[in-house]
Design goal:
- This protein is α+β, with helices and mostly antiparallel strands.
- It contains three helices and six strands, in the order αβαβαββββ.
- The strands form two sheets. Strands 1-2-6-3 form a four-stranded antiparallel β-sheet. A two-stranded antiparallel sheet has the order 4-5.
- It is globular.
- The mean pLDDT is 92.
Length: 96
């Protein structure tokens, strides 16, 4: 799998920004078929940092209603990546 296919987008929520500042841990939305080693290689290649840990979570899609119609959003995968102390990731460098 190509590195640009593994990383979809950064997650910039209030909780992820607090984790970034206090624990040096960054959160990304990733391809559901990717594994931890692929995610680690993609982060190290794209951002030129040393990854010390990768945690992943498969999240179910939520119920979505529009008028009288309802359905489910797609399931998705989230990765929390811990970077070596002293290194930082610039979230604007994510390739499109």
């Amino acid at each position: 799998m190509n590195f640009t296919e593994v990383l979809i987008s950064p997650i910039l929520s209030e909780k992820s920004v607090i984790m970034k500042d206090s624990q040096n841990r960054y959160t990304f939305r990733v391809n559901p078929k990717s594994n931890k080693t692929e995610i680690k290689k993609a982060i190290e290649t794209v951002f030129k940092v040393k990854v010390t840990a990768v945690r992943t979570a498969n999240l179910p899609g939520k119920l979505h209603k529009v008028g009288r119609y309802e359905g489910y959003r797609s399931d998705w995968k989230k990765a929390m990546v811990t970077v070596k102390a002293g290194q930082k990731i610039d979230m604007t460098d994510l390739p499109k």
